[in-house]
Amino acid sequence: MNILEIQNLKKYFDKIRAVDDIFLNVEKGEIFGFLGPNGAGKTTTIRCLLNFLKPDSGVIKIFGLDSQKDSTQIKEKVGYLSGDVKLYDSWTANDHISFLESIRKKKSICQNLAKKLNLNPQIKFKALSSGNRQKLGLVLALGFEPELLIMDEPTLGLDPLLQNRIYIILEDLRKRGTTIFLSSHNLAEVDRICDRVGIIKDGKLVATESIQGLKEKRMHVVEVQFSGIFNKADFYLDNLEIRQELPDGLIIGARGDINPLIRRLGQYNLKDLKISHATLEEIFLEYY
Amino acid sequence: MWTLIWRTIKDRRIIISVYVAASIALLWMYVAFFPAIKDQSANLEQLLQSYPESMMKAFNFDIKSLNTLEGFIATEQFSFVWPLLVIFMLLGYSGSAIAGEIEKGTIEILLSQPLSRLKLYFGRYLSGLLMLVLFTIFSIFAIFPIASLYDISLKTSHFLNFSILAFLFGLSIFSIGMFLSSVFSDRGKVFFIAGLFLVLMYVLNIIAAIRESLTDLKYASFFFYFNPSLALIYNKIDDYSYVVFLSVIVVFTLLGAIIFSKRDIAV
Fold first, then answer.
1. Sheet containing A65-66: order of strands
2. pLDDT of A160
């Protein structure tokens, strides 16, 4: 069952195509990573999901409802965390919690979460460190036990300990069936917690794959050291890319069938050969 | 929506109190001056008669204003100081109500809640309206206990009438402020454009009073329709003042709501 469906989404700012014809589905209980560098269109897409921005064209359905017409209804079941949490300076965490409880007209589990994250709820927002601000943002996003959690670079600028704590919370949420849509340019983060990723480049979605599928795209990195003289031109093949020249060898990126490369290498005496699957980062860079 | 209103008023309680206290302090000062002014009213009236009529009109000065506290306070407090206070208070609030929230990024937490943009807009609007009601009541009707300290009697109906005019004037300014706040994403632009607009209207009113040939310009100024002397001395408000203020309130409030509910909000 799709919790989130995006069809033909376009959002332009004057002549800049921030999001250009995106199609995307996210299933229930899935952690979907939306991957791309700064300015690729991740935040614009998220703002369209939350109806902060009005798309120029396209349809966004969340829980089967229209993201614009039924925005209020949708947000009852959505939690949102931005990478740069901005809240009211003069309010404490308690003030924020009780304010949102009044707006949502229901009790939250925010106090428990704050305790779990070692967040003092009596300190004013302006006095909190950036890590604690992010914790408060997380508490408010998760406190109403959302069915869909939308996060825009949630661990941006956080120390590894806090990042790790957030990953544990997200993994726990996945076990409980919460759907998570997460934008990031942190590949290690996406690799660790996401089930599937969408790669966005210049506003266009260039790939949507499971993490495993992406890794199994038969992309290899071959590091070879030759015993004698070698001809670099022998390795100028369609599916090969010479990434680096070593004093006595090459580092070659290979897409698809690796056999033509192996046959070429067979013509030489080798000192050493290392073949590894490309990391997510290397796969990601293939699109850029 | 009530949560939003309650929280806004709670956050702004100190600033509202400061404006109310400043207004009451000034009111008290003028009331305290009044007995001495009244004693000298014959001499002052003679002096005023020597002033050009256009200047008296431009600054809303009525020759009868020195005989009664209503007239004196209309000229000294309610024609200039009170509008200034209400303009600062309400433009300060309206600028931060939407544009300021976008500028600071705090609007994201509100927009991500199950709260429609219209409710958010009117929550903010009603908070400002409530601030205006509180300010109008305290800053105008505080004159009754103050005047009684000096054994001065006042005409209640004149002040009631004036409070309606003052409220409509304040709400018009506030509605324009909220409209501008819905259009822009930073407070500076709201203050600049609203300030420019009000200064221009004030100048138009003065030019219209000074130059006979440009007298029709007064109709383009809010300050022409806001005449405290007429309300407090003669207990009268021109019908067109109601029409203009109510029209401005309705048009700018609705335009602000429509624009805010349809616009892009990127923090």
1. A16-27, A2-13, A57-62, A65-66
2. 85
Same domain, A12 and A55: yes
CA distance A210 to chain B (A): 28
Query: B residues 67-126 near A, CB within 8 Å?
Result: 104-106, 108-109, 111-116
A42 at B interface, C-beta within 8 A? no
The SS3 of residue B47 is helix
Question: B247 CB near a chain A CB, below 8 Å?
Answer: no
Placement of tokens 């921005």 in the chain: A53
Identify the domain boundary among A192, A214, A236: A214
Kindly provide the residue ranges of all beta strands, DSSP E only, lying in A121-218, ordered along the sequence. 148-152, 179-184, 196-201, 204-210
* Structural domain range at position A179: 2-214
Answer whether A52's CB lies under 8 Å from A26's CB. Answer: no
Give residue-wise pLDDT tens across range A98-141: 999 999 999 989 999 899 888 999 999 999 998 899 999 999 99
ipTM of the modeled complex? 0.83
Of chain B, the percentage scoring pLDDT greater than 90 comes to 63
> Which residue reads 């505080």 in tokens?
B142
Q: Across the interface, which of B11, B108, B113 has its CB nearest the CB of A100?
A: B113
- On whether both A84 and A172 belong to a single domain, the answer is yes
Residues of A in contact with B3 (CB under 8 A): 99, 102-103
Nearest CA in chain B to A49: B112
B43 has a chain A CB within 8 A of its CB: no
The Cα-based distances of B74 to A9, B83, B90, B148 in angstroms read 59, 11, 21, 18
CA diameter of chain B: 66
Q: Best mutation site among B113, B119, B120 for testing chain A: the one with the most A CBs within 10 Å?
A: B113
Q: Are A67 and A161 part of one and the same domain? A: yes
Same domain, A176 and A281: no
The count of structural domains within chain A is 2
Does A240 lie in the same domain as A190? Answer: no
A104 and chain B: CB distance < 8 Å anywhere? yes
